[in-house]
Design a protein that fits this description.
The chain has 650 residues and is of the alpha+beta class. It contains 22 helices and 26 strands.
Length: 650
């Protein structure tokens, strides 16, 4: 027991040594909120409290948490589920389970989504807080945004890899020394040039390894100078492993880190191989020029007066100028039309002052045609001095067209939705002895669902539900045509069969051959409780009776608009006290989750059976809410529409 106690105390001590621990945060939050609000808000770490349920709700967040996730204020976050901010919502559920099982979670790297949709990487430290009864009250946690750290680490790894490759593949001999003049590392060219292996060279004093007796004094003087922080450059002789001397140029310099010299390096060049080295430089230059010219985007190099120094082939193709026509001329005189001259001047001024720019605008070709471009401009820096600037131009004409198309589709969807909602009933009918309700949730592109209630006389009510094929504005317009047609037929024809047959002929003549309409048409006689109906391709309504299994109505029929002279049949059923009849469109049962599992008819039946005693409007709300929640896709693919007819128990 003492040993266990000691381990527990050690663990607690380790936890308390964390920079900002969960217990510290709990203490801050439990003390006067008003007194310490400024302190928690000044912490650069995001602090939060959330509920422990499956999706989670934010109870409290600090300003840093709001800022990290890109929201305006904490009220925006409190409205969301905690799982909503995860790039993968399932991770939230996994983390909740771990917290409930283990109590704490430390420095878990996770991906979150900012409000603008951009992913960020954070370290999550969290634990649960219990109530006095031992049950979990809530989670409390800290997030630290390490996106930049990750990027920086990756960049450092890339730079390290780049340096190592450069070091080892450099065409000159490079040696790194400590401040005691001992060799720390050599590259492959050093080994080739002087005949030593790395193992033989590392740990040796540089002058003992390479300096012959006649050059000892010079070698000692050079080493002393570099160790003192000076740079040296000279030509001399050094010896190989076999004792032969080789003419070399030497460049030596200190290596400084955080203002302190940690060693030095020396670069040796075999002067006898100068021609070979120049040839290698020429190869590299040719490679870079080929890379420049074969780039898929237009690239132009300017000097610090904004005159063109060079352009690649894509620039010539895009702007229709030859290289000879533009070199030496001001870039804005070449590509900026009069109406964009000021815009171009401002961009040039920014880049020439050392500021990178990214901008979408318009530029002109040689023939004067304007086109959409994105421009990336940046200074070219060498030895802390700006040598010029470069700009990359991308033709975004097609991108702009796609964006305009997307906006047009969205506007059409809004218009279609408005049309659809205007044709749906504004309220549920009040029917003696019955409780009737209906509702529809439109999808993003509006699927064309339709339902309606039409009084024939004081005792007979027409109940309609249907679905127009297709989506968007065209589906909404067909739905408007459908409503007008059905209402006109209902005004003088009360037989469901004949009403559908007449409506079918009219719709066949007025809609295109690719469009069709599934429709269920029923007439409820509240005096006799007879429900007479005809069906044109719509899912069969389901009847729920007390102490009986649910049964579907039986009459089928061809969708409207497919065959000009379709025949339909009448069906009928008596609604007994307590009976519930449910009419629905396929958008409910065919809604899918991320696993592509449909909501299905079985779930619908179970949901209705569990709620038959509730009011019709409540059943409708529950079904639509549960079906929509099942559909984990961000936007619905199809409308969801449902109508409930209940005969009250007398």
């Amino acid at each position: 027991m003492k040993k266990e106690k000691l381990n527990i105390n050690n663990n607690k001590k380790s936890e308390n040594q964390s920079r900002i621990s969960i217990d510290d945060t709990v203490k801050l939050l439990k003390e006067s909120e008003k007194k310490y609000k400024n302190l928690t808000d000044s912490i650069p770490l995001g602090i939060f409290q959330s509920t422990p349920d499956k999706y989670g709700k934010f109870i409290e967040v600090n300003s840093a948490f709001v800022k990290i996730l890109g929201y305006k204020n904490k009220n925006e976050l409190v409205k969301l589920n905690v799982s909503d901010i995860y790039q993968n919502p399932n991770i939230h559920e996994q983390i909740s389970k771990i917290l409930i099982q283990k109590g704490t979670l430390k420095n878990k790297k996770i991906k979150l989504l900012r409000k603008d949709g951009k992913p960020i990487t954070v370290l999550l430290t969290s634990r649960f807080i219990k109530k006095s009864n031992g049950k979990i009250s809530h989670f409390i946690g800290i997030i630290e945004n390490i996106t930049k750290k990750n990027n920086t680490k990756e960049e450092l790894n890339i730079q390290k890899s780049y340096f190592e490759n450069l070091f080892n593949s450099a065409p000159e001999a490079i040696v790194l020394h400590g401040n005691d003049d001992k060799i720390l590392n050599v590259n492959e060219e050093f080994c080739r040039m002087f005949g030593y292996t790395k193992k033989e060279a590392i740990g040796q004093f540089i002058n003992e390894l390479l300096v012959s007796d006649e050059y000892k004094e010079e070698g000692v003087s050079i080493s002393a100078s570099v160790i003192k922080g000076n740079r040296i450059a000279l030509s001399t002789k050094r010896k190989r492993k076999d004792g032969s001397l080789v003419d070399v140029s030497i460049l030596g310099a200190p290596i400084i880190h955080n203002g302190k010299q940690i060693g030095d390096y020396a670069i040796y060049r075999d002067i006898t191989e100068e021609a070979k080295f120049n040839e290698e430089l020429l190869v590299q230059k040719t490679y870079l020029e080929e890379l420049f010219n074969s780039a898929p985007e237009a690239i132009v190099l300017h000097d610090n007066s904004d005159c063109i120094v060079n352009v690649n082939k894509e620039f010539s193709r895009m702007f229709e100028y030859t290289k000879e026509e533009v070199i030496g001329k001001k870039i804005n005189d070449i590509v900026a039309s009069n109406e964009y001259k000021e815009n171009a001047r401002i961009l040039s001024k920014m880049v020439l002052s050392g500021k990178p720019v990214e901008h979408e605008t318009m530029r002109k070709r040689k023939n004067g045609d304007l086109f959409d471009v994105s421009i990336l401009g940046a200074p070219i820096i060498s030895n802390d001095k700006q040598m010029g600037v470069y700009a990359i131009y991308r033709d975004i004409t097609e991108h702009k067209k796609a964006e305009e198309t997307r906006i047009r589709i969205q506007e059409e969807a809004k218009m279609a939705r408005k049309i659809q909602m205007n044709f749906l009933p504004k309220s549920n009918p009040e029917v003696a002895g019955y409780d009737i309700a209906g509702s529809s949730i439109p999808a993003l592109n509006v699927g064309g669902d339709y339902y309606d209630f039409i009084w024939i006389d004081e005792n007979r009510l027409v109940v309609i539900i249907g679905d127009v094929s297709g989506n968007g504005l065209s589906a909404a317009m067909v739905m408007a045509n459908l409503q007008a047609t059905i209402r006109s037929q209902t005004s003088f024809e009360h037989n469901p069969q004949k009403c559908l047959e007449r409506a079918n002929k009219l719709l066949y003549q007025s809609i295109d051959s690719k469009t069709f309409i599934s429709l269920f048409y029923g007439v409820l006689d509240i005096k006799t409780n007879l429900f007479q109906y005809a069906n044109a391709g719509q899912d069969l309504p389901i009847k729920f009776s007390i102490n009986k299994e649910p049964t579907a109505l039986t009459i089928h029929g061809v969708a409207l608009g497919l065959i000009e002279n379709s025949n339909y049949q009448n069906g009928e059923t008596i609604l007994e006290p307590g009976d519930t009849l449910i009419l629905y469109t396929d958008g409910i049962i065919e809604s899918m989750n991320e696993k592509r599992e449909q909501f299905g008819k079985d779930r619908l039946l179970e949901l209705v059976q569990q709620n038959t005693e509730r009011a019709s409007n409540k059943i409708v709300e529950d079904i639509l809410s549960v079906a929509k929640a099942h559909c984990t896709i961000e936007e619905l693919n199809d409308d969801m529409t449902i109508v409930i007819i209940k005969r009250k128990v007398e």
